[in-house]
Amino acid sequence: MEEPGKRVATRGVTCFSKIKMFLLALTGAYVAKSLSGIYMNSMLTQIERQFNIPTSIVGFINGSFEIGNLLFIIFVSYFGTKLHRPIVIGVGCVVMGLGCFLISLPHFLMGRYEYEKTISPSNNLSSNSFLCSGNRSQTLTPTPDPKECSKEIKSLMWIYVMVGNLIRGIGETPIMPLGISYIEDFAKSENSPLYIAILETGKIVGPLIGLLLASFCTTLYVDIGSVNTDDLTIALTDTRWVGAWWIGFLICAGVNVLTSIPFFFLPKTLPKEGLEDNADVTKSNEKEKHREKAMGKKRGITKDFLPFMKSLFCNPIYVLFTLISVLQINSFIITFTFMPKYLEQQYGKSTAEIIFLIGVYSLPPICIGYLIGGLIMKKFKITVKKAAYIAFCLSLIEYLLFFLNFMWTCDNFPVAGLTTSYEHERIQQPLYVKKNVLAECSKTCNCLTKTWDPVCGDNGLSYMSACLAGCENSDGTGINMVFQNCSCIQSSGSSSAVLGLCNKSPDCTIKLQYFLIVSVFSYFIFSLAVIPGYMVLLRCTKSEEKSLGVGLHTFFIRVFGGIPTPIYFGALIDRTCLHWGTLKCGEPGACRMYDINEYSCFQQAHLHWVASSSKRIKLPRVNLHSKTFEEVPTP
């Protein structure tokens, strides 16, 4: 009577313990981690404006995720295989949720966001002090207040964001190496590429949701619910606008915690896929477990760590693949970290619109490419040597194709005294090097010369403030305010101006479409190369070294790509800043406008360096025909 009961229970556990159940749970974890990751990258510009920090610090905040991942990746990759891998992955998901919650915490600890402005939202007599007036006894200048500097600079509330991102990196550590090794251990070798392709697809579904969430949150004002948005004098396209970035992080925290639940109910080991009902195999697995326990007691848990490390470093294919991956990740990180800022400045669109366009044009082709790459590897049983050639060639083609995007460039915003002179009206010319903010038409106005509160004149030229445009009167309230009798605006109209920078030419919108169309093909080719590349990484290492090999590969990517790249490139972006925002105490804050031509040159130079370096790394014949490849089974 007991045997049937046991048989039913065992059958139920076996059914629940199939590799596909783990694959489903792991795909959910991939969706959650990529959701929070892409949302973080999309909100970097909002965080920069919220805390009034330069891009170099933003790069450091972004790199803190890699630092957290780096601290535990090797140890988790090695020791995790000896522990209960699903539970370790579940704990990691919970830690990621904690990190996301900590990132959102500064919003509740600091006061309301006060953007730099010279304009009062109301229209009364006292608010006309921001307009041109020659009757003032002294020039308007911001009054330095040491207490304000202490509040704005030394409070360092952005450290909460950095620490939260670091904790998020720690939590993500076990998901990929332990998840991939778990699938490799218990899945059929011919199914492994398809399963990994499904996981990579999950990494695309997450960013797709994340970008849509980021686009929505960016349209909401950061202090929504506590301020009257009708009184705002900035629009979505304004570089002082800050969206409700904290809402998305709270959602990401909840999603990460929910995805952790299934892992606590999954077993430590599984029968090999396709052999679940084979009694001989079950007995063989039991004997294998006893043998592993005996070997563990005899050798110790750490005795084979150094031999594994030596074996990986002496594996030429593994070392070569890791080197190419480091170069590849350099361009990848720059593209996804700073691309929203670049497109926003290049084409004059709002952050919300740019994030939405990136999601629509880039993620679907990547998702399709992942699935096609996995199906091709499974259908044609491509050998590892062929997979190496395919991945290498496709990556180079993708780099060269992406270079075409830098042909579709626009001029800088025409800002009088900053990018063009007061005498020129929308004339395309090199960057105005004199930077004479004051002109004859506004010298007697006693204007603030550092405050960024731009207006657009009827002549198509932007001015840093209504005062610097020589405007004497204003009409309306909030974002609908109109300035009149502007002496610096020379046009046949009423010489008036409205809030915000002037829109870029219609040709710029067309160039943005070209950029996005080329990006579709670039991302598709890139995604086709990912699965063959993954197969090279997994098949060029021994089965017992796979988890450590994946972890060590990730370790080098973090050290030489993920951490330094956003920091040094953020510093390069700061060098292209044309005008810094001003804090209440007079210190510089976040950058309001960049020299987009120089910015673009930095992007091109970096991609050229990556592509040329990849070309110099040739695949030696000795390595391709070495025993390393011949001994490893192909899918």
From TrEMBL:
NCBIfam families: oat
Pfam family, one: OATP
Name of the gene: LOC101993277
PROSITE patterns associated with the record: KAZAL_2
Protein name stated in the entry: Solute carrier organic anion transporter family member
Subcellular location: Cell membrane
Membrane spanning stretches: 21-40, 60-80, 87-109, 204-224, 244-266, 317-339, 354-376, 388-408, 514-537
Keywords: Cell membrane, Disulfide bond, Ion transport, Membrane, Transmembrane, Transmembrane helix, Transport
Family per similarity comment: Belongs to the organo anion transporter (TC 2.A.60) family.
Chief site of localization: membrane
Mode of membrane association: Multi-pass membrane protein
InterPro entries in the cross-refs: Kazal_dom, Kazal_dom_sf, MFS_trans_sf, OATP
Residue ranges annotated for the Kazal-like domain, each copy included: 435-490
